[in-house]
Description:
This protein is α+β, with helices and mostly antiparallel strands. The chain has one domain: Lambda Exonuclease, Chain A. It has six helices and eight strands, in the order βββααααβββαββα. It has helices at 21-28, 38-61, 67-78, 82-97, 142-156, 184-200; strands at residues 2-5, 10-13, 16-18, 101-111, 115-125, 128-135, 162-167, 175-178. Strands 4-5-6-7-8 form a five-stranded mixed beta sheet, sandwiched between helices. Strands 1-2-3 form a three-stranded antiparallel beta sheet, with no helix packed on it. α2 (38-61) packs across α4. The radius of gyration is 17 Å and the shape is globular.
Amino acid sequence: MIDFLEEPHIYLVDGVITPSVSEILHFIFPDKYKGVDRKILNKKAQYGTTIHESIEMYEANIKTMAIQEAFDVTIQAKELTYIQEASLRQYLKLKNRYNIDVLEQEMMIQFEKKYAGRFDMIANVKGYLSLCDIKTTAELDEEYLSWQLSYYELAMGKTFEKLYAIWLPKKGIGQIVEIKRKPREVLIKKLNEFLEVYNND
């Protein structure tokens, strides 16, 4: 049983506070956001969240609506700005070009009660069963994503045919970028290093 407390951003697995994939990534990349103003980070995070929610809503709408109607309803419901609308359009172009068929979205997962997280999307992409993460950053950090998606995959207990970033940079052209996975032994080693620090704090 996994619960997520929104305000403190805490995962509970069977009622026990459990570290998140984000916390492990912060341990691996301690300087990733060093020197960046907190307000700027929050603004970027809010922008990314809005795009994620819009895609999730569009994919839910498309099951019962025509493409244009699903698009219009999503824009109105989420009150998207022109730039956010452009990002959603970029996603639709990628969806069409790569035959993205979404199977599952925003599902919470955990690994042996050691960490928890929530992946963005499982989809068939060009016919490949894929685990996908949506990014709206100006630059794509493929090394960061390699760890992130690999930890999600480990928690799923299965190997996907592909790991992909669905990259929708603000004011940029959307891209699908294949991400290399980390070997299981590398993930476990780094997880144990993290837990040693986490449990002694």
